[in-house]
Amino acid sequence: MTQPTAPGSRESPTPAWELLLPASSAPARARGRALQSALRDAVRSGRLAPDTRLPSSRDLARDLGVSRGLVTEAYEQLTAEGYLRAGRGAGTWVGEAARAAAPGASDLAPRPSTGARADFVAGTPDLSLFPRAAWSAAQRAVLLDLPHHALGYPDPRGLPRLRTALAELLVRRRGVVADPERIIVCSGVTQAVTLLGIVLRARGQHAIGVENPGSPQFEDLFATVGSRAVRLPMDEEGLAMGPLRESGVRTVITTPSHHFPSGIAYSAPRRTQLLSWARRVGGLIVEDDYDGDFRYDRAPVGSLQGLDPEHVAYTGSVSKSLAPGLRLGWLIVPDALTDDVVARKRYMDLGNPALDQAVLARFVERGDYDRHLRRCQRTYKERRDALVAALHEHLPGTEVSGIAAGLHAIATLPDRCGPHQELLDRCAASGVSVRPLGHYGGGADGGMSLVIGYAHLPPARIAEGVRLLAQAALRARFP
Amino acid sequence: MTQPTAPGSRESPTPAWELLLPASSAPARARGRALQSALRDAVRSGRLAPDTRLPSSRDLARDLGVSRGLVTEAYEQLTAEGYLRAGRGAGTWVGEAARAAAPGASDLAPRPSTGARADFVAGTPDLSLFPRAAWSAAQRAVLLDLPHHALGYPDPRGLPRLRTALAELLVRRRGVVADPERIIVCSGVTQAVTLLGIVLRARGQHAIGVENPGSPQFEDLFATVGSRAVRLPMDEEGLAMGPLRESGVRTVITTPSHHFPSGIAYSAPRRTQLLSWARRVGGLIVEDDYDGDFRYDRAPVGSLQGLDPEHVAYTGSVSKSLAPGLRLGWLIVPDALTDDVVARKRYMDLGNPALDQAVLARFVERGDYDRHLRRCQRTYKERRDALVAALHEHLPGTEVSGIAAGLHAIATLPDRCGPHQELLDRCAASGVSVRPLGHYGGGADGGMSLVIGYAHLPPARIAEGVRLLAQAALRARFP
Asked: What's the predicted TM-score (pTM) here?
């Protein structure tokens, strides 16, 4: 059998050529591909060292029991690709171009479950409520009647049909001023805020105000686009006006309909003061309407944006209403920013996927979206009531707030529940995942306020979780 | 009937209150919503001017023929939202917070068709070949068996199942070194290049080399992320090495398997020289494998990335193989850049939509993708042959190049075909859309080279288009 000839004293392992190509009854073309692939692997891995001389095509063909043409073709192909080189004269040699890849960790197993017996971490809707059958029907219908050209490069602002459907939806449900021409379909609130951050940074705004406490993601996000998040304190009515005015920022991100995490709605005077501030400084209020659809005891508060669309940018998504995995949201910005935001969106991804947009458009148009929201609203209200009842039963004296809306509540435990950190440690040990209010900023939280996400848990799990929480709380006191 | 009382001499039009709410037999709740919505609209549009006093709830309820509670609720709701304000004493007034939106252009009609009788502009595959039935079946299957948690916030690198499927695909079809851990699912080549541009800019690289002629989008793209595209000349073997070395850039975007638009494949020596350059300067070659799947007369050239994955970033998408509207692509970067790119991807969109990724994974896993590529390959080869035959028949003497691969060809017309601009004008007048090679850069194109995209046109349209092109070309000579 033919052995490779390595020039000089190089001690490269000498492969048995026939191992390149396991005996097979596959057709010649498949065997040719397999040979090329095996040769590439051998060069890359270093099994065939640079400057190794390969056997002649005639010899290798005989060894492998394949036609000579197949070997010649493989040599030519790999020479064209740079793995091999044709030497002076007749020989073929391993080239020096290939370099082995660094071995990568190969752990692609799904992240392990937290193993929590009750996971009260806020932020996710109940994914088991996702309307799979209706969504599937909408997908099928869209593929049946979408014109071919709609599969081409999309409008970076979004599918016109979806923008029209969203305008109707947001005007009706959220009191937004939403001309379809002004809506930009995006992949969610994160992308919306990133787009705004980049555009404002280019206009010289290096600092953006954020609520404190508030969503922790914005600090990293603004750092990534080259600007800085300025934490601004809240009071009982909303963002405190004094510190806002003194901060010097001209843009602030807010959750006026349902502040995250405290759950308050901004008061009417505060909404007006905020708008006055924006007009005076020529500023921008970003209204993050992250869970605007779920209100239990009163009608939803209309959007701030509806009051002054030239000073408020409005953003929301289907992440809480349908599923975060869809990556579909919307952004409405003042006229003066629209072109810049669309230009950034264009270079970020050219626009959202067309089929998904058409499916959501159909889903909204036919009332499926409203039906789904009603169903979620009923379910989540029931769960909220279960949470309140369980806290009342197992931890009497607990003050529950922020429960008029949304997917989470604030539970402030009575003083007798022992030191804060000890309580949290005991919760963790009992398999109860829960975050203190202080996790979201707001300075030292002397009290025992916990942010309890309940919407993703069935009532029985909520009751069981609160029972475990109460055990942990009482043990923290009486060890 | 009650009329609004405007204080002072303000000449605001005085609305007839009953017009707020058309007579209706709708249930009370719906009428309440309609009233709130009508009041909001009236305030926003200025029909109800600031400081206008509203009728008492009792009077308005009587005028509208609704319950007083319904009016009270509407007043309370709009006061909470800032549209109205409660005055001292008993009255309710229009607030000053609301400001009318600037009227937006409302032209959402789809862009008019170019009306071209033959559209030879390159860049789009035949969208009518999109495998709708198979894609629909994959969507349905995915929705049937996707676990709930997969609908949550995605891994910004992409669904593990898709990364595994793509790794297998790219290793097999394109000779890429593609550990699933190293693949980043993104929304296409534009996003891939934007991500790299941002990451490299943050590391101090303000200039990125691009091929000239080449894809025109990169100049604007790099300007958007704050860096600069440096146009580097091509020669017959690929990117010219001298100008590249002298330019001082450390990153260059290339199309080595099938240069756009000339259609050449980089020679083996040039591939090696390019890699040597990258190693010497610690640089990066970005391999844009935009149409790597379509090769007609020989096996596809393996990727450059396979030779040195630590100096070559590889990117591609399904835009040419399935449809640009899917916005699904991939990016494989050297280890040293992976974390930064993933961090940027996270803040750009948190990751690609989960369902689309699962559908493509299934599509690849089950061989549907390979089947579809084979079908396209056959169809496009037939069209390429039709183009060559038609040019031979109607414009003998035309030199056709770049036809071994891809979705377009270069046709260099014989000298007798009259001045360049006159030919293009006549083409346009005859309804033939076609771009000269000079459109993509490369300096003054003295010749008559046209870039002809053929893949999206059936053979009969191609033949007819070439006939019209020939008429225009000959008339340009003999008016």
From this structure: 0.81
